[in-house]
Predict the structure of Acyltransferase.
Amino acid sequence: MASNKPRIKELEIVRAFAIMAVLMIHSTSEATVDIPLGSRSQVIYLVINKLSNFAVPVFVILSAIVLFYRYYDSWNVREALAFYRKRIQYIVVPYLLWSFFYYVYNQWLPTKDWSGVTIDWLQFADKLRWAETGYHLYFIILILQFYLLFPLLMTAVKYWRWFRKYWVVIAFLFQTAFYIYHYWVHSFEHPATLFGTYIGLFAAGGAIGMNYERFRNASKHIWWVLGSGILSGYTFALLFVLRQHDIDFGPPAMEFFFNVYAMTMAVSLLWIGVRLLEDLPGLSTLLMSMGAASFGIYFVHPALLSFWRYQFVFPGDSAAYQWSTLGAAVMTFTVPWLLVVLLKKWKISWIWFGK
């Protein structure tokens, strides 16, 4: 059975780095536009924000690794049914609850007045399609698409040798075609929420998952892979800085460096996780705690961050704004983590935080 396969402990460490990147993106997002454009502080915030953009694709890659690692050797109809039951229980239920929470919360927050809160169930149901009750919830819609596709992909990979051999190439070709269609034929309304934006990375993660032991043993390549990741990441960030000065290399360049950055960071962080488990067990335990709480942190942190920003409002060019932004980041990195760790002690916490 797939469940008997040993747990990949370093995945939790990578999840910790990825959720920290999510928190960094959201903590610095307003500073990239509130602070005067082109100033030193604004450029620093912009670079930090863009260097953190590996977060979502890394989570997509990790999901693929877990799925293909666990199910490849024992895939059948019974496994497929169990797979969907777990996804509904641990992904869809929390998504519905948090969507309703943010539907109400975001109406209440600006005025702190409950009289201004209205509940229109048809409107709420319509917003669920594209996760429009919370700016961060789009990831659930994205990952649910991969969960719907997974049984088809797994079956094809399992029983069609030619597909198993070329499916990563096929997936990246599909992702490229999706990108070309979006930019030069007809743009999609929610491209970041559609599976076509990440299908190549998902397939690459699946290939790693099916061959994980061989992948782990290839960690001697970490130096050039990590070097490539750092180089591509800073190039990706530099493109955004240059765009502010009307030097634009176009969307294809950004898309290329974004995908290279995401893939090399995912691979590098997995190998770094292996090293940390071997050499720094104390730090590994701390990171694994954060990784295990990452899904809950993802749901909780925007409520706290938004509340902070409504409480502390300062001009973008003031020192107070800088301190408030730093304080918000520290709070976002600590309080949601602590809350999730404490609340997950309840047996029914899966309703809110999945499993």
